[in-house]
Amino acid sequence: MSSQARKKALRFLFQKVVDPLGYKFSPDEELVEFCLEQEVKLERMHGIPYCPCKAVTQDRRENMKIVCPCIPFHREHFDAMKRCWCGLFVHKDVVDPDKLKQLPENKVKRG
Amino acid sequence: MFVSAVKIKDIAFGGMKAVKIEEKEIVICNYEGSFFALDNHCSHMHASLDKGTLEGYILTCPLHFAQFDITTGEVLSGPVPQDYLRESLKLSLTDIKTYPTQVEGDSILVDLRK
Fold this sequence. Notes:
The complex is a heterodimer.
Chain A: H1 3-18, E1 23-25, H2 29-46, H3 60-63, H4 75-81, E2 89-91
Antiparallel strand pairs in A: 1-2
Chain B: E1 2-7, E2 16-21, E3 24-31, E4 34-39, E5 53-55, E6 58-60, E7 67-69, E8 75-77, E9 98-99, E10 101-104, E11 107-111
Antiparallel strand pairs in B: 1-11, 2-3, 3-4, 4-9, 5-6, 6-7, 7-8, 10-11
């Protein structure tokens, strides 16, 4: 089971999920490779590709909200930043992901 | 030696079909108009892969959701979720044997000797 093949598969599967949500993989290829590498490791450990930037808890219900791509569970928050928390996915119109800032969830204005 | 396995019209785009040839069960998958043949049994618990799902080139086993690359037979992910599997089910997975295919007329041929 090579991690390269699994990363390619995750790209293929995630692309189909995030595209209808208005997101794409970040143009920062190094970051994408790094995040996917971590997800492959998490998947080997837990069987599920959790978000590499958020802590897995003992609560399965909560953990389901951080299964990558977790955009539907954090839509308002991510839409405000135009990126997911890791930066693995960005809004389709984003060209320079370095200009996007991480905002704490409680700083995002509720619409 | 290539032998006729199935008619092209029997496998829709993104579909798959199990066939038995010379006592061997194989599954033939249609990935974007190209056909790929591999053993029909998952290397984990021998579930029939044609009962699983085909998403692009990724075939997912219906039993414990192991995934395989139909173009190479390579294991892409193990049975999941690992945390919830009994020890006895935590078997190691091996790649699945693939077979060369070719299209002739309206039929898909498979070479089981390779």
